[in-house]
TrEMBL record:
UniProt entry tagged with the keyword Signal: no
UniProt protein name: Putative carbohydrate kinase
Species this chain originates from: Prochlorococcus marinus (strain MIT 9301)
Keywords for this protein: ATP-binding, Kinase, Nucleotide-binding, Transferase
Taxonomic lineage: Bacteria, Bacillati, Cyanobacteriota, Cyanophyceae, Synechococcales
PROSITE patterns in the record: PFKB_KINASES_2
Length: 332
């Protein structure tokens, strides 16, 4: 059996995005791992989402969306004592977004903070069967801000590695999550950075933004960043509309990605990029030369760009046919 499945672990949450008129907000389904799981399905790759949602209307909306795209939910958890997190997202005049905090909840924590290792361990045989069919496990670092979810992430990583599943980590640094967590709010910035850097040693593939490279590694060279980590992972550094720098399969380079004057909202662009990259690694095989790497990055870049041409992350993610049509239009 060929390993072609991708398991995405982490937060599914609501992006409450400020309207252009500044007169209110619109709610969109989001959360980086949830975004990646959905984007992969649109790109014809089987995906599994492992996370925890509140037993609320938002949780139901997520389940409806996941089911619509046929994302596997065998390990999804619903919690009665917490709520699905709602993130307030503001935008500047260029469509770039920033997190301004969370909607208050009547519960003491959010559902993504209580992803339970115990509940997953009860399904260990199903989990191991899933690992046998899995090529990549994708996760970020936000769940490290909660001790319960953090323990579960490490449990899943160790299980995946036992089945030779490759680990893809999107650093996805979001300070506001750490500032608002009862566990991590008292932890210094330096301690947070060190905790995350240690976690990154699990990566076979590491994606990060340019500003994250500077903050965590004091470097923007993907090869030198790779050398700082024990697995010597492949490293991909994105920088908005600017070229992507990469160190992949022992090769290093810079790739221009397509741009547009019609950017509406950058929410989820990096997640669509990552899904595009992973889909190419699975469908075309791991790139062995510069041209193959360029093709992977350009495909991923097109996925990211097309997601920016409308509001919300999952709604705007392109289907496989749309990406190829767009790339074809650039050549003709």
């Amino acid at each position: 059996m060929k390993n072609k499945k991708v398991i995405c672990i982490g937060e599914a949450l609501i992006d409450r995005i400020r309207n252009k008129s500044n007169q209110g907000f619109t709610d969109f389904l989001g959360g980086a791992p949830a975004n990646v799981a959905c984007a992969l399905r649109k790109l014809k790759i089987d995906s599994v989402f492992i996370g925890c949602l509140g037993s609320d209307d938002y949780g139901k909306k997520f389940i409806t969306q996941f089911n619509k795209l046929d994302v596997n939910l065998d390990f999804l958890q619903l919690d009665n004592d917490s709520s699905t997190r709602v993130v307030n997202v503001d935008r500047d005049q260029f469509g770039e977004r920033f997190f301004s905090g969370f909607e208050e909840s009547s519960y003491s924590c959010f559902a993504d903070e209580v992803l339970s290792k115990k509940l997953i361990a009860k399904q260990i045989l199903n989990l191991e069967k899933s690992f046998l069919e899995t090529k990549y496990l994708v996760t970020g670092t936000i769940l490290l801000s909660s001790p319960i979810s953090s323990e579960t992430i490490f449990f899943l990583l160790e299980g995946a590695k036992a089945f030779d599943v490759k680990i893809v980590i999107d650093l996805n640094w979001r300070q506001v999550f750490w500032d608002h967590s009862s566990f991590s709010s008292e932890i210094s910035q330096a301690t947070r950075v060190n905790l995350i850097k240690k976690f990154l040693n699990h990566a076979n593939v590491l994606k990060l933004a340019k500003e994250e490279a500077t903050l965590f590694f004091e470097d923007e060279n993907p090869f030198l960043i790779s050398q700082q980590l024990s697995n010597r992972p492949d490293v991909i550094i994105t920088d908005g509309k600017n070229p992507v720098t990469w160190y992949i399969n022992g090769l290093q380079g810079i790739t221009e990605t397509p741009s547009s004057q019609e950017i509406v909202d950058t929410t989820g662009a990096g997640d669509a990029f990552l899904a595009g990259l992973i889909s190419k690694l699975i469908s075309s095989g791991y790139p062995s030369n510069e041209q193959e790497i360029e093709d992977c990055i350009k495909f991923a870049g097109a996925c990211g760009l097309l997601t920016c041409l409308g509001e919300g992350a999952i709604e705007q993610q392109p289907y496989y046919e749309n990406v190829n049509k767009f790339l074809g239009s650039l050549i003709s």
